[in-house]
Amino acid sequence: KPGDKVVLYDQHCRFCTLWSGFLARRADHRLKLLAAQSAEGLAILDWFGLAPDHFNTWLFVDGAYACDDNDALLEVLRLLPGPWRHLRWLRLLPA
User: Which helix (H) or strand (E) element contains residue 74?
Assistant: First the structure.
């Protein structure tokens, strides 16, 4: 729904599933976690014109804004309580 911050993850990826569990325990209802392969996840991928059969990463969605991979990770960390949110400054480091 509008206003939700959503994280799509690959349910076939063991790391992604573990990471989503970590987020679920810490996000305190700030994030909605969805498997990209779920009906709702597929609809979001379609909305952004992303092919579900090639999805193998994270996607962070906030309204009409979406980012993936490391950018998605840093956006998610920004929303977590405690010391995790301070890791968002990693974005400033050169790649």
Answer: helix 69-79
